[in-house]
């Protein structure tokens, strides 16, 4: 065996021993919340397709029409010849939907955050993140080289202490004045399903002269009078400098975006490496996302959102978002519970380290508008009986 193969074998065995080895499951068909996995039909409670738009005929038709007009690929990066009309139309819709001056789309939400944070910050700057923020923010922070400070999940006192520290003179004499300070958090947290206190964070950022990035991946389409997200719901649009989101969850397509001032977007076009050095997203993805924004912003969007919340509350009356974690703790026990649920016809992932901390494994239930009330209720009964057995 070569050294590489030997090394890989040891590392894989280690993952197996810890109950942390993961593998792909091939999904042979996926329609609404119905999946077929290994020939077995399963009800999908793991999708981020919160409003059921991935199988909406209007998104499908917009994609097909776009492929007919523009082809299957964009052919080049946006700054070359890849800046196709559907990308511009999408960005106009995104800016209007999120009430910002401008928007920029990326090939994924991950790329949006990575490109933005690394463009804005240098090693002389400071980034402050919530302990539970998504891996894309953590990776962006590390890659930027900025000094990284972490506050306990939603702990405003710790955030305030760190903000005060950023304003103290540096040891060695030079003031920290002039350093950029960026706070980054999610609005609805992806593995815990709880919400960030955005109003208080905005108050602190103003008080201490910091900038704020909010990742709305799990909030778009779900919160706010016009379903724009938790920023809309908490009326903090003016206080959030950088709104980040994905087209791959409630918007039923694929890609990511940043919404903000025209200067911010102009700067990112010129500096965000994940934007500059990457082929433009396929135009059909932009066309589908534009169709989704139109639906979410319409009266029908409200109908879908109401159905979603009714399902969420049927499953768990106090849930704060469409993500409802069922805490199990032990990694192997979580995997067993997911297997037992599969036997009963439910597809629900066991979330383990490194996605969450060791020993805090959980079943992560995602509720969608395409589920029926009975399905949500029956799942609750099934989970109770499996975990109490
Ligand atoms: C899914 C997700 C992302 C990444 O978005 P993609 O478009 O899937 O790359 C970023 N942040 C959070 C909180 C997410 O859940």
Order of SSEs: HEEEHHHEHEHEHEHEHEEHHHHEHEEEH
As a percent range, the share of helical residues equals 40-55%
Low-confidence stretches: none
End-to-end CA span: 45 Å
User: Main sheet, how many strands, which sense, barrel?
Assistant: 7 strands, mixed
In order across it, which strands form the biggest sheet?
A: 4-10-9-8-7-5-6
Given the helix and strand composition, which structural class is it?
A: alpha/beta
Report the principal-axis shape: globular
The pLDDT mean sits at 95
How would you explain this protein's 3D organization?
A seven-stranded mixed sheet has the order 4-10-9-8-7-5-6, with helices on both faces. It has a four-stranded mixed sheet with strand order 1-2-3-12. The chain has a three-stranded antiparallel sheet with strand order 11-14-13. It is globular, with a radius of gyration of 22 Å. It is 43% helix and 17% strand. The protein has 15 helices and 14 strands. The chain is α/β, with parallel strands linked by helices and 389 residues long. It has helices at 3-17, 57-70, 78-82, 85-97, 109-120, 135-144, 156-166, 198-208, 230-233, 262-271, 273-276, 283-296, 299-315, 331-343, 373-388, and strands at residues 27-31, 34-37, 40-44, 102-106, 126-130, 147-151, 181-186, 211-215, 242-246, 256-260, 323-329, 346-347, 350-351, 361-366. Bound molecules: pyridoxal-5'-phosphate. Pyridoxal-5'-phosphate (PLP) is lined by residues 108-110, 134, 136, 186, 190, 215, 217-218, 246, 248, 256.
């Amino acid at each position: 065996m070569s050294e590489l193969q030997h090394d890989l074998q040891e590392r894989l065995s280690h993952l197996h021993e810890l109950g942390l080895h993961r593998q792909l499951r091939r999904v042979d068909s996926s329609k609404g919340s119905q999946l077929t996995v290994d020939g077995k039909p399963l009800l999908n409670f793991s999708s981020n397709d919160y409003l059921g738009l991935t199988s909406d005929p209007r998104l499908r038709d917009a994609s097909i029409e776009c492929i007919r007009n523009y082809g299957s690929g964009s052919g080049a990066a946006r700054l070359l010849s890849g800046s196709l009309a559907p990308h511009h139309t999408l960005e106009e819709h995104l800016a209007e939907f999120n009430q910002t001056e401008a928007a920029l789309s990326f090939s994924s939400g991950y790329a949006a955050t990575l490109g933005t944070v690394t463009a804005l910050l240098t090693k002389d700057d400071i980034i402050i993140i919530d302990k539970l923020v998504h891996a894309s923010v953590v990776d962006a922070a590390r890659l930027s080289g900025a000094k990284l400070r972490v506050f306990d999940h939603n702990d405003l006192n710790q955030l305030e202490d760190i903000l005060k520290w950023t304003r103290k003179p540096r040891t060695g004499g030079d003031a920290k004045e002039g350093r950029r300070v960026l706070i980054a958090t999610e609005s609805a947290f992806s593995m815990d399903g709880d919400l960030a206190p955005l109003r208080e964070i905005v108050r602190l950022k103003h008080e201490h002269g910091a900038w704020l990035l909010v990742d709305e991946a799990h909030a778009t389409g779900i919160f706010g009078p016009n379903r724009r997200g938790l920023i809309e719901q908490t009326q903090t649009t003016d206080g959030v400098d950088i709104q980040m989101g994905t087209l791959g969850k409630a918007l039923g397509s694929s890609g990511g975006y940043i919404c903000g001032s025209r200067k911010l977007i102009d700067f990112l076009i010129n500096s965000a490496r994940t934007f500059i050095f990457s082929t433009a997203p396929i135009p059909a993805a932009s066309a589908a996302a534009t169709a989704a924004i139109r639906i979410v912003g319409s009266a029908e969007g409200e109908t879908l959102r109401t159905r979603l919340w009714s399902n969420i509350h049927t499953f768990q009356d106090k849930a704060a978002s469409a993500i409802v974690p069922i805490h199990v703790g032990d990694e192997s026990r979580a995997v067993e519970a997911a297997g037992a649920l599969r036997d009963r016809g439910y597809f629900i992932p066991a979330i383990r380290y490194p996605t969450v901390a060791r020993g805090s494994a959980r079943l992560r239930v995602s509720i969608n508008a395409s589920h029926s009330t009975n399905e949500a209720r029956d799942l609750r009964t099934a989970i109770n009986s499996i975990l109490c057995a």
